Amino acid sequence: MTDNCRVVVLLSGSGTTLQAILDQQNQYCYQVVGVLSNRPDAYGLERARSAGIDTRSLDHKHFPSRESFDLELMERIDKFKPDLVVLAGYMRILSHAFVKHYQGKLINIHPSLLPKHKGLHTYQSALDAGDKEHGTSVHYVTEELDSGSVVMQGTLNITPADTAKTLEQRVKVMEHYLYPRAIDWIASGRITVEDDVISLDKKPLGPQGYRISEKSIASTE
Ligand code: GRF
Hints:
Layout: E1 5-11, H1 16-23, E2 30-37, H2 43-50, E3 55-57, H3 66-78, E4 84-87, H4 96-101, E5 106-110, H5 122-128, E6 133-140, E7 150-157, H6 164-187, E8 191-194, E9 197-200, E10 203-204, E11 210-213, H7 214-220
Helix pairs in contact: 1-6, 5-6
């Protein structure tokens, strides 16, 4: 993409994912230039300010429609001239215009092994389904919820002792390792997309993207 890829992060909550992205940016070729939230009280904004990053908040409750909110949000995002827009716990469904405007440069991280368990409460859904595996997916954003091409997945084995809480903790550790890395791979041009097929270093990846297990992440840290 570029040598120093300009990244704008959107969030709605505590921002632990943003923190991981910020903490690792020195070792990677992206640079967070702005953080925006639809919730003025999101703790993630505080984290960004502490790191000296420009923040904006735009309360969706003050807008008559999703479309009008997204239009204003797009204007504010574009002032940062981003190369990549990164969703990190951004809890709003995106309008058609928004997704179209950032097509190919909008990514998300979703706590499940897509296409399994789209939407909310993925940890409980995986347990209820009796899944042996769970994890997280970094994917490009398309209009259909949690459905774009998958760049990377982190996988873990579910144990009988796991609860939704323990799964969430384990997944978050993987996310904080994976997401900055995925952003770097996109920023550096190692990841390319053609006809919805994702390639890493010109080698096509399967529909689940580049897969890495909790165990191998633990052994690299
Ligand atoms: C992450 O677990 C991510 O998978 C999901 O939202 C969560 C955000 O957590 N999209 P935080 O606000 O960054 O702590």
